[in-house]
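Lab channel / #folding
Pinned by the channel admin:
"Please post every new chain as: sequence first, then the structure tokens as a reply. Keep commentary short and put observations after the output so the thread stays searchable."

First post following the new format, from NK:
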Amino acid sequence: MTSLIELKSVSVSYDAVNAVRGIDLSIKDGEIVALLGANGAGKSSTLNAIVGLAPVSAGKIIFDGTDITDFSSETLAPLGLTLSPEGRRVFATLSVEDNLMLGAYSVKDKAQIKAAYERVYELFPILFERKQQYGGTLSGGQQQMLALGRALMCSPRLLLLDEPSLGLAPIIVEQIFELIALLRQQGVTIILVEQNVSMALNIADRGYVMASGKIVAHGDAASLSDSTTLENAYLGAE
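Reply from TO:
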């Protein structure tokens, strides 16, 4: 498999804060890759840099052979690159249906939009049942499903998931991870930032471990599960 996306010596800085420090990573077409580490390690900044929401101060991001380092965020969804952000960020005063429509803002083909709705409602039947309900009145689990569905409306090739299980009940977490695995079967490549390390590595092909803005370990999911480096990263040791 060829690499769908590559980060080459990428750094992200916010004024004097160096959030990401010269990292290299590569994701192959069809993989689920977990990005792991303690809070503040630079994981979300890495995802935000990929989708143009954080400033890349050094390095390059190559997506499907194209240098997208300086692309604006609104130009990336049409290329097939979408983020489902931490905290879900659904639009509370819009209906489920309208929240989903916002995810298809870059799609001009009405037939494609119709097919996207059908796909999302097939994956998340509860959203079809509540499609006229305000997003803010949904449960936490339903809002996460809505956030995932919104990200899928433009049929992404690469889906970035930032803490999809955050704040959810265990039974809902299991459902979310089953859906992530299903999306991979449907051909979606996924980068997964997740604090539930065991569940992340259970569905991931490979993983990268971040600490203090750097990649401190990477490898297949099984080897990382047995790695003391992973434990040290969460305990704050380099």
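NK: The mean pLDDT is 89.
TO: also worth noting, The chain is about 35% helix and 30% strand.
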